[in-house]
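Incident log, support desk, overnight shift.

02:14 A customer reports that sequence design results differ from what the structure should imply. Their input is reproduced verbatim below. On-call engineer (initials T.W.) acknowledged and began investigating.
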């Protein structure tokens, strides 16, 4: 039995967005993945000031940040968790902008990497690009 799905400690659904990146049989070149992430972030992002991100039971690797968000990765069984977190000292409006950033980054990565999303403590499903999602309205 595995450890279950990764989720950054102390984060609510309002201040984190996350996908899993499957490593595959041939493995994943971490530098290539990080380059792809950096290439697809807005210009306001720069290398992270601190290397590690305390993410609950595991420690992640901070990749990039700007004044509002941190982007980090952590190991989760045979895949990596890539997550965007609203910084603790960010203005209140940052939580309302996280989905726009996540869609932009995750949609661009989905063209070259196998992404999945957390569906619960033990389940995950295929990532669907924002342009392909069906929005149900009341």
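02:41 Re-run completed on a clean worker. Output:
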């Amino acid at each position: 039995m595995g450890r279950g799905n990764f989720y950054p400690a102390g984060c609510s659904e309002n201040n984190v967005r996350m996908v899993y990146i499957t490593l595959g049989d041939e493995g994943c070149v971490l530098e290539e993945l990080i380059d792809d992430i950096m290439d697809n972030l807005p210009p306001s992002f720069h290398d992270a000031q601190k290397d590690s991100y305390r993410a609950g039971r595991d420690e992640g690797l901070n990749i990039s940040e700007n004044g509002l968000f941190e982007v980090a990765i952590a190991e989760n069984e045979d895949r990596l968790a890539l997550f965007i977190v609203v910084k603790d000292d960010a203005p209140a409006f940052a939580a309302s902008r996280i989905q726009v950033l996540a869609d932009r980054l995750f949609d661009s990565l989905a063209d070259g990497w196998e992404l999945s999303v957390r569906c619960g403590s033990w389940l995950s499903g295929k990532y669907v690009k924002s342009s392909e999602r069906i929005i149900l309205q009341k």
